Every structure is written in structure tokens, then in C-alpha cells.
What does this fold into?
Amino acid sequence: MASKRKIIMDCDPGIDDAVALCLAAAHPEAFDIVGITTVAGNQTIEKVTENALRLVDFYGLDIPVAKGAGTPIMRPPVTASDIHGKNGIGDIEIPETDRKTVPEHAVLFMKKIFDELPEGEKITLVPTGPLTNIALMFDLFPEIKDQVEEIVLMGGAAVGGNVTAASEFNIYEDPEAAAIVFRSGLPIVMCGLDATHLCGVNRENAADLVEHGGKIAAAVGGMVQFYLKSPAYKEKDAACIHDAVTFMYLMHPEIYNGVKMPVSVDCSDGPMRGNTLCDMRGTVPEEGLTVTVLMDADGSKFQEYLLEAVRMLDAKRK
Ligand code: RIB
Ligand code: CA
It folds into this structure.
């Protein structure tokens, strides 16, 4: 196990964002989440922010939440209600909370965290939604890049897409923001569909969580079951928990195969909008590359570790 990392999670909960946070919450020995920032994506900024506040309490965490961008940098927002439900987390009701967001916008909140970081310490950014907040932060405060350990993001695909044949939702939603982040020069691990499509929870295990687990397991299982009824997975045996691949990679890099390669983002308005062009020709010397694209994953290990984490968190919350 690698040493404990300071993390900022930038998310749009979102069923798989919610499950990813559950995974991280079960492993405080690995992650010190110093802040959660929200971004419009799966649902509106209001809904994803309310979900983030409730999830922090539901998982027994005490992490400040900051509300971020309500729209992509240049384009109108597109939500994914058909996949994530009206409330954004599979229409599963988790308890309301009195917790409020911090007063600052997510970008200013992140800036404050970096300003208060002890000398020499760095933060790993874990974006699991559109990259709007991260891009705005780098544009406004480029010096922050010196305090970023790496970016482990869910987004993109070397081959294929889910919103269109050519692009994955997080990149499609805000391609300009993604282009800014991929051009940042920072070390990036791209947890794209090539790996996340292999990392899921199957119907049997989702039902087991609901029927035999505690309240967290029941909620997570219920969210996954909503996913499994959605157009994305209704013909499939398992639902991909895309966002959880970020934290899973940080804990178990050995179950993934990453390849360094140039990645560029298509910001056109045509059929390739949001495509992450991954140059697999191997013609660019590795030392000049900053992006590692996860190209393979051990899906059974992923599911085993994820289910273990859900049950561990439930046991802790008893
Ligand atoms: O394409 C999958 C990604 O889009 C995930 O982050 C999911 O939560 C949605 O935001
Ligand atoms: Ca997400």
C-alpha cells in the first residue's frame, strides 16, 4: 500500500461518484480527503452539491464541501438523469443533513487549501466529473500546479465512448476544460472507459448488498440496481463503477495496466466533440509524456476490493 495521500475530490454525484467516495471513506489509511468540490454534470449543480453534503454525513466523514461550476466553460450543461436518476444518485433517498457548503466557490476553496498547505506538501486531485473547476483553477491560479502531486481522473477513452461513439461523458460535457487540464503538463492518470468498462458490480452482488448489507450497503446496492435498470446497463450483467477506478488505482495500481501516451481533446462541435485522441503509435519519447492511460484492469479484483470496502464502512458505522 502506498503512503497516505492528501486528496481533493472534484465530483458530480452521481451514482459512481457516490460509490467512489464510499471506497475512499473505507480507507482512511490511504486517503486524507481535505476537500470535496462539486461540478455540474450528472445532475444540476444544486442536486450534485446536495448529494455530496448528504454523502459526507452518510459515510461518517467530516470533510468540507464547496459548490463549483454550474455550467461548462463554453457550452450549455447536459445532465444524465436517465442514467443517474432525478436526484442524481439513482433516486435512492439518503438522510438529509444540516451540513452546509463552505462560503467560497469551489475554485476559491481549492486555492485556500493549497495556500494553507504546509511547505513541500502536495495534493492529489481526483476529478470524477467534468473538468470545469480544475481548468478554471489552473487558469486563475497557474502557480497551484507546483503543489499538485498528480491528477487521477475518470474520463475519456482511447477507444470508443459512452455519450457518443467517440466521447465519454465527463470530457464531452466540457471539452475545453479537459483540453486545459490535459495540456497542464502535470502527471495525469486517465481512468478512461478502456479500464472502467471492466470495473463493475454485477446483479448478484448488488442484490446481496441490498438484501444482506447494512444501510450503506443497501444504499450503494440500490444505486447500482438503478444503474442496472438504466439504458446504459439494462442489457448487461454488471454496471461499471467508473469513478471508483480512480481511488482503486491509487490503492491497487497492480490491477491496472497503464500506458504513457500523448492525449489531445477534440473541442469541435462535430461528431468527434469530446474525443480524447490517444496517440498509441509510440513515436513520442516516454520522457516527454505526462499522461498515463489505463488500458486494462482486473475486474474481479476491482469488484472484490470494492465490495469489501462497502462492508467495511458499514461495519465502522454500526
Ligand atoms: O462516463 C462516466 C462518467 O460520467 C462518470 O464520472 C459518471 O459519474 C458520469 O459523470
Ligand atoms: Ca462522475
Observations:
- The longest helix spans residues 299-317.
- The longest strand covers residues 31-38.
- The pocket of alpha-D-ribofuranose (ligand 1) is lined by residues 12, 14, 16-17, 41-42, 128-129, 154, 162, 168-170, 242-243 (CB under 6 Å).
- The chain has a mean pLDDT of 97.
